[in-house]
C-alpha cells in the first residue's frame, strides 16, 4: 500500500461566520486519483484552495508528507476552470512564468508542449488559441514544476463534449506516466467515475460518503453507469 501523501484532520473554514467546510477528515495515498463531487456551495473548491494554501483555514490541520502546511503549498499546483493565462505573454512565457530562462527550461517546455500536442505554439499568444488549447497550456504550466499533487478545480467544465473527453484522456495518461497524486473537483459524476479511483461526496460542508472505484482503465460512460447512479443518488438524497 502506498504511503499517505496528504492527511487532513478536523479541517474547518468559515467566511464571516458562515461555515464553508466543517470538521473534514481525509487521507490520500501517494499516486491516487481522487475526485470530490457534490452540489454547488458544498465545500469542494474550498477544500481544494485550503490544500493549496490559497486561503487560511479556520481550524484543523493539513499535512503533506508528514509536514504541516502553513501558507502557500509549493508542492501543489492548481488548474482552474478559467485558464488564467496572461494575455500579454506567449505560451512559453505563461508556462515558465517567474522561472529562470535557460536551455534546460526551454527543453522542459518543449517536451511539455509536445506532450499536450501544442508543439509549434510556443510563441503564440493566448488570444490566438481555442479554449481547449488554452486549457492544455494551463495544464502544461501546472506540470512545469513537477508538483507532487495536481489540484483540478473543474478545469474541463467550460469545454465542449469532444474536447472535454480528449482532455480527460490526456490528464489520465499524464497521471499514469508521472505517477503523481491528483485531486479533481467536478460537478460531473460521470467524469468523476471515469477518471478517479476514489470518489468523495462533499455535502453539507463535509465529506459524507466515500466510493471506491475498482473499474479498470480505460473506462466508458457505459461501464461507469451503475456507480455514477449510486453516487448521484447519494448527492441528491435529502436525508
TrEMBL record:
One of its GO terms (molecular function) is ATP binding. The keyword Membrane applies. The keyword Transport applies. Residues 6-229 form the ABC transporter domain. It comes from the Bacteria. Transmembrane segments: none annotated. InterPro entries: AAA+_ATPase (IPR003593), ABC_transporter-like_ATP-bd (IPR003439), ABC_transporter-like_CS (IPR017871), ABC_transporter_ATP-bind (IPR050166), P-loop_NTPase (IPR027417). Keywords: ATP-binding, Cell membrane, Membrane, Nucleotide-binding, Translocase, Transport. PROSITE patterns: ABC_TRANSPORTER_1, ABC_TRANSPORTER_2. PANTHER family: ALIPHATIC SULFONATES IMPORT ATP-BINDING PROTEIN SSUB, TAURINE IMPORT ATP-BINDING PROTEIN-RELATED. This is Glycine betaine ABC transporter ATP-binding component. It comes from Paucilactobacillus oligofermentans DSM 15707 = LMG 22743.
Amino acid at each position: 500500500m502506498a504511503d499517505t501523501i496528504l492527511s487532513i484532520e478536523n479541517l474547518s473554514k468559515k467566511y464571516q461566520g458562515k461555515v464553508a467546510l466543517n470538521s473534514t477528515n481525509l487521507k490520500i495515498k501517494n499516486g491516487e486519483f481522487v475526485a470530490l463531487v457534490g452540489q454547488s456551495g458544498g465545500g469542494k473548491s474550498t477544500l481544494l484552495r485550503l490544500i493549496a494554501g490559497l486561503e487560511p483555514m479556520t481550524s484543523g490541520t493539513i499535512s503533506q508528507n508528514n509536514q504541516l502546511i502553513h501558507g502557500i503549498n509549493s508542492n501543489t499546483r492548481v488548474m482552474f476552470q478559467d485558464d488564467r493565462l496572461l494575455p500579454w505573454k506567449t505560451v512559453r512565457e505563461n508556462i515558465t512564468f517567474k522561472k529562470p530562462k535557460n536551455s534546460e527550461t526551454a527543453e522542459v517546455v518543449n517536451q511539455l508542449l509536445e506532450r499536450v500536442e501544442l508543439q509549434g505554439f510556443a510563441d503564440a499568444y493566448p488570444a490566438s488559441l481555442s479554449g481547449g488549447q488554452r486549457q492544455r497550456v494551463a495544464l502544461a504550466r501546472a506540470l512545469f514544476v513537477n508538483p507532487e499533487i495536481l489540484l483540478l478545480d473543474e478545469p474541463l467544465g467550460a469545454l465542449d463534449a469532444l474536447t472535454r473527453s480528449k482532455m480527460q484522456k490526456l490528464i489520465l495518461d499524464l497521471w499514469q506516466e508521472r505517477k503523481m497524486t491528483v485531486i479533481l473537483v467536478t460537478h460531473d459524476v460521470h467524469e468523476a467515475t471515469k477518471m478517479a479511483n476514489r470518489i468523495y461526496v462533499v455535502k453539507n460542508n463535509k465529506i459524507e460518503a466515500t466510493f471506491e472505484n475498482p473499474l479498470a482503465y480505460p473506462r466508458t460512460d457505459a461501464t461507469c453507469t451503475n456507480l455514477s447512479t449510486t453516487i448521484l443518488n447519494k448527492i441528491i438524497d435529502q436525508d
